[in-house]
Amino acid sequence: MKREVPLFATAVIGLFMILSFFVPHQLVSVPADFLLQCVVIVVAFGYVLGGANALRVNIDLIAKKAPNWQYKIVLLLGLLMMVIVGAVEGRGFQAPGTRFTWLYNQLYVPMQATMFALLAFFIASAAFRAFRIRTVEAGFLAVAALLVMIGRVPIGNWVTGWMADLPPALRWMQLPNVEEWIMNVPQNAAKRAILMGAALGVMATGLRVILGIERSYLSGED
Amino acid sequence: MGEVELPASGMGRARSSTFAALVAVLVSAGGGRAQTPPIGPPAPPTQLEVEDTPNDAGRSIRTHWTLSSDDAPGRTAVTLYYLERSESPTGPWTAVDSGGPATSEKDDATVKRGREYFYRVEASGPGGRSISNTSAPVAARSEWFNSTRWSVLGATVLFFAFVLFFLASAHAGKSLFVRRIPGIDAIEEAIGRATEMGRPVLYIPGIQDIDDIQTIASLVILESVARLTAKYETAIVVPVTYPIPFAIAEEMVKSGYTHSGHPDQYDPHSVRFVSPEQFAYVAAVAGIMTRDRPAAHIFMGSFFAESLLLAETGFSTGAIQVAGTANVHQLPFFVVACDYTLIGEELYAASAYLSREPRLLGSLKGADLMKITAIVLILLGCIFETFNQHWFRAMMKTQ
What we know:
The structure holds two protein chains of two kinds. Chain A is mainly alpha-helical. Helices cover 76% and strands 0% of the residues of chain A. Chain A has a domain at 131-222. Chain A is built from seven helices and no strands. In chain B, α4 (213-232) runs parallel beside α9 and α9 runs antiparallel to α10. By secondary structure, chain B is α/β, with parallel strands linked by helices. Chain B folds into three domains: 46-139, Immunoglobulins (Immunoglobulin-like, Sandwich); 147-168 and 360-396, no CATH class; 176-356, Rossmann fold, CATH 3.40.50.
């Protein structure tokens, strides 16, 4: 029963949600909307579990004086501070001008921006490795990337702008046109192929879960 | 503007009349206020048509009308259209929506299912208001089938049939061939390396919640990965973004250790709830990478801007990295920074591939057959469109 009930519930609700995609009638859509809203309640309980885990893991590490345990104190203080300030503020804790919002905007947002800014440096280092031409395929990649990059900035237009005077049959050689072709034809074709494969993978995974073929998420004994 | 002083003599009066006439002509030529005719109300909107919005649960009524003839670019006679509704053709009328100039359609989503309504449209401007004809009564009704989704239903039924056929084949003992996927094979290699180095394995199940199917696929793979780490007696660390995936990830890792016969090795601290905030999560995971130095990083699931931040940080630590995602825009970053990358559908195939269970492999074969069907349909579509036959595309169109 420990496994059969969840499997049955998954199958029934899964098939019902598929049905709601095709049947808009209120007898189907209203319960389907209700089920989706129930997710919010489940998620709320999940946050309690998550918060408890964050406290347990980090308190244990502090107690054991694990390497870098001092950082865990900062983490716990930050966690508790935001929870307490939010609770004191009450319902409108996210409104502009509250202490919670101030802490979020003055502490978290700058730190978030700092992390995001690192991306520029990581892109440079990754691009350096990606464009090293070691094989023929890597050569194609580098040439295509170079054409796209130059074609998308004003200098690309400037370098090949004189080609606008050429006969129409030769104007495709202008870098912005080449860039547009690379992005619209080979790039789009590859992207759509990946997306279609992924969509079928989504269907297969969903079907495996609904039919109870994939049941590892139930854990426990067979 | 300085005032013009006119002489008081008779001659001067004659001159002043001429001057006044000249000013009047100039003002008139310049479109001055003195000559502007009074503005009346705009012409009313016409041909108001209403219909029950098709293929819905009876939640809205669609209206459209022909614009007032005074509503044209550059003209200001119409500033707003009000859509008004009543349960009687004689009113009282309630404005349910409004729109600026050039608005010729609105969906009223505030109706009660099954109740009849009348509509009219009011064009409003500086000169007043004018009202369209009153519509025929209309009621919103629930429909039993969304007629724009026939093609999707057909594809779904076909897909179910394919999968069930291969499941039956697997049950009958027929062996199913699945091509080698180097990226998935590399997972065991990475865990083996971590074991040799005596360092943990870091598993990142993407940054999306459980409503993203990639997260579900990733958590299913996690169970197989946990089995391997249990088998090799290697620690695993799983930082998670959202609480529901966290709870499931805990179950998955526990399940992996139980199924591999090493339940005692399961560490309750191995799965950690971090934060749903994207960059807070990145900071935490980058910290784990640089401080704990896991020897293998496995990224499986849905990733966004953090993909390169994580993968490059991982690369700098020298760990072996295996990634898999169906987010097309993040694939290049993983390809560059990781040793192996599962592309799109390979992510969804990983759990079946790792478990080698015939029933799971059957669903993969079903997806492959569906892929062949999709290719055939695409080719047919190209051929029909080439010969100016558009019925096939229209049949496949969906919303």
